[in-house]
């Protein structure tokens, strides 16, 4: 390839505080190629894309367009340079029409007093017709998620782009819609537009893309023509890292028990997950892996009645669980730690003690309906000491604590009700390494003491290092279960991305 | 984030130290400063009579402020309180004129106010409208009902028996009953808000409704009952006003809601929910009352009074916002 790359990234680094998101990353994009970018969650793909799109600024390194260095200081600059990004998260105005959303950027640059809605609608419809038969006069808020995703794509097509970035565009699309999108991407390529295609789905990458670049832990790993590698090799490069963290020892052979604390049979909600069955055995930590959006959280919420289910049976230590609300589930002994710590896990502006006591206020309430403040403080003290939570005082709000200590408060809240089963959704997300390994040790101690522990995690090393057994979820179904020596990052990624699994035919459908 | 390891001692600072760090301390200081300045500016200010008048002037509204503060803590708001106060007043008044015993009529007025609270609570929790819109509609509807009941003319209730009039006009060892009732309500709800489990749920819901849901708290129940409580306390206030004035006017209480919300907000309640104290809100309404009294004693034209009170609200809330931002950094 002798020609000058359309877009070149040279030695870019970016850090957030002390966390290094990208370290000395380079990447180049040829004219008219479809270039896949792969990596685990947190590998730095989105950070790089946000730098290219002008949302973030790199701390070091250069961006070159047609060989000339440029400074992409804002999304508007990126657009004027011909760099378009289709966001993974939908960022549309729900109360505006499809046409208005598609031309939002153009409207922003428009230097005329009045809008020409008629022309806008005609232009929008012409672009939309290539994607799907949607009426552009419809309000975006009335569309399904997959149609909203199509609007997001159509919006990028309205820009006169030379480089288009797709960040997991098929995550919310149906098979047919995905195939239509692939047709359009190939068409764009034929018009000399260069595409960066971010995806976890190997089948898509290998059927659509020309080259594939792998990132890992914020560093560049390799770039290869897809013809020269196999999906397995790409997966291995994505995850091929040494587990450097020390995890607590797993359960020994003697500790193993066939006795199930929690059994789930054929659980489904008719939408996000279906026919989920598994056992949680006494003394083990069961991991649940899968890509973000695969339905892991929904399954956990279904088990503890935070989300309605349409079929299936959950039993706890034998008898069937008849809880109708989360309060019932807590009473029965199942607690859930939300992945969204600040949004639904803790009360940021309330004191530590009041956060720890919230799940079982009844136990602290006297006959007159009054809270026993001393009992509440004692409870909090007990857990602060047990979990080693570092605090300035019981009366200060949780918001003054570090992320790791906030998470410990959230966990203390679950433990304060003496649960039989704890479901932990991303228990160590966004916290530092020290607190992380403290939480890992704590979870192992809990499992030893006979509490059933389920850990949902997007971090493969965490699943492998911490859990005794891992279930892998894909598209709301259990794809497989890995245990003992069979546990490897590749095995999990294969199941999660659909290379291997029960329904292979469906997984490879994207390639068809 | 400088947090040291918790020592294990109960974290109770000495009483005076805690008082100094409380946001109420600032309000007390402002009120005291205003009183000192006024005592020099007007010889009538520092008299028992003037203080009693000031206390009387905000005692009944203070009962409504209690309900509003709790509603603000849960993340709601009630614009209809002025209308509901009036509704309770004219309903009880017309029942009395129809020959019902005044105590029974008053009870009916309070219960009817609670029913209005239930209806608002229904629209907020079951239908899913927000508190602002629901109570805005209720404000207009209930005011309309007052006009319908009275056919637009004030009810004269001079025939009320002395035993009933005593509630609003009588004294107990020189202290008006109105002030005693007000102090009783304040102490009761301040205590409940600090200690009762049911009211703790109000804070959880207002602080982070999703986290409360994810803690098994039935947040819609909490919001419903707090809405009912606020309307009921408005009903109580209406009945006391009836006893005090011996009349029921269908336009009474118009604009009262703004004064009450202002008081709660000056006292530290947040419109976003999750924070607020009864003591703070009462200090808030006391401040507004002292300002009003001062303006009158200083012979400031009535045309200026609203503007000055509005500026005080803006200043108080801005200062508070500024202090809190600083703390966050």
Indicate the radius of gyration of chain B in whole angstroms. 21 Å
Number of strands of chain A: 19
Biggest sheet strand line-up of chain B:
1-4
Number of E-state strands of chain B = 4
Oligomer: heterodimer
Main sheet characteristics of chain A: 6 strands, mixed
Please indicate the percent range of residues of chain B in DSSP E strands (runs of 2 or more): under 5%
Number of helices of chain A: 19
CATH architecture of chain B: Orthogonal Bundle
Briefly, what CATH class of the largest domain in chain A? Alpha Beta
Spatial order of strands in the largest sheet of chain A: 6-7-8-3-9-10
| Parts with pLDDT < 50 across at least 5 consecutive residues of chain B | 1-14
Our Rg estimate of chain A from Cα atoms comes to: 25 Å
The chain-level structural class of chain B is: mainly alpha
Shape summary of chain B:
globular
pLDDT averaged over residues of chain B: 87
Largest interface: A-B, 44 and 30 residues
Which residue ranges of chain A are poorly predicted, with pLDDT under 50 across at least 5 consecutive positions? 503-512
Secondary structure class of chain A reads alpha/beta
Indicate the proportion of strand residues of chain A: 15-25%
Number of helices of chain B: 14
Main location (chain B): membrane
Membrane topology (chain B): Multi-pass membrane protein
Protein name (chain B): Ribose transport system permease protein
Subcellular location (chain B): Cell membrane
